[in-house]
Amino acid sequence: MSIEQKILIVDDYEPNLVSLEAVLDDKNWTLVKATSGIQALKLLLENDVSLVLLDVQMPEMDGFEVAQMMRKNPRTQTVPIIFLTAISKEDQYIYKGYQAGAVDYLCKPINPTILRSKVEFFIKLDRQKKELEEKLLRAREHLNAYNDSKTRTDAAS
Description:
CATH superfamily: Response regulator
Radius of gyration: 20 Å
Mean pLDDT: 92
Distance between the termini: 40 Å
Structural class: alpha/beta
Strand content: 15-25%
Number of strands: 5
Largest sheet: 5 strands, parallel
CATH architecture: 3-Layer(aba) Sandwich
Low-confidence stretches: none
CATH topology: Rossmann fold
Shape: elongated
CATH class: Alpha Beta
Helix content: 40-55%
Number of helices: 5
């Protein structure tokens, strides 16, 4: 079974997107990029995303607001968010990030090996979740088919 997995990376500073893309270039997933919170929310509605790497400080709509909007939408409320920041490193912001629904909060400069390991973990977790959902769907289909055939057999008797 082939499961397409997408990672949304959101940062208003283009060189950061390029750096993240270089670190996360991999054939096992697709990178989707956004340069604003509004663009990120639009892309989240258009794509089935496995993970979001979200910059905290952005104009118009910061990462915390994006996360809060994601958590209100049933389609995106369980998508893992890893916050990335170069500025908001104080405990109050870290706490606010977790309160907004983040699974992690990383401060720049980010160690590429650590970031890649965290991404691989969440991608693996998402793949396992999707495989279980697919197995559950097939099991339900088999059960429904069995129940339908049993109902037809009982009705014919």
